[in-house]
Structure formats: structure tokens, C-alpha cells
Design goal:
Blueprint (H helix, E strand, L loop, with lengths): L4 E5 L5 E5 L1 E5 L2 H7 L8 E4 L6 H8 L6 E6 L3 H13 L4 E4 L12 H10 L16
Parallel strand pairs: 3-4, 3-5, 5-6
Antiparallel strand pairs: 1-2
Length: about 130
Amino acid sequence: MKTLFSCVTTNRGVKQMIVDKCIIVEGRSDKLNIAPIFAEDVKIICTNGTISEDALLDLLEPFEECKLYTLFDADNSGEKLRKLTKRIYSEAVHLFIPRTYIEVANAPKKVLANLLSDAKFSVHKQYLSSTLEM
């Protein structure tokens, strides 16, 4: 398994972590729903809802060297964010939750785990289990 963080030492001798994968979500509740699913370290970035182009650029600037993924709600707000992200970061990989659940925060962990696993994230196997309570 590839390590998602690598250490670099700055000119002041301080070790700093560099993230290789980042996933962008809309809000804190989305982050809280997906965070326990990962079996690897992944930086989860929240846009906190609707965001301007400049604000998105500022938010993602520290992570421009990362492989970027998006996981937005299946609603108008999510689509606006997806279009904005596609325009600014065309290389980002866009993940889509089934429209049935509308919001990432409301999607069952099993559904999210399968989606993330298909996107080559390492996920905890318990969330892929068919016996998981939804």
C-alpha cells in the first residue's frame, strides 16, 4: 500500500507532512460520515457550502500537488461546486453518490465505502460487509 504522507524537513529542521490524496466535500457532516471509512490517511477538505472561485483556489492551494477527489451532494449546490472544481482543477476525480441519498452526510457508510473502494481508496472492510446496518 502506498503511503499517503511523506515527511520533509524544512530549512528550520521542522518535519512537515505532505499529503498525496485529498478529497473535497461540502460540509463537516459529510466529513464526519466518510472519515471513519478510510483505512488510510486521506486529507478531507470542507468547502463549507457554496464557495467562490477565489475562495476555492485559496482553500486548495496547499494541496495542488495532491491527487484531488471530490464527493459532493447530488443537488444543485453540489453540482455548482462540481462545475467550479472541474473548471479550476480539471484533473480532479469526481465521485458521485447515488441520487437516492441526495446528501453525502445521509448516504449509508456501505454505499460510500463501495464508492471509495472503487476509486482505489483503502477502506475498512467492515464497511464493505453486507451485514452492516444501514
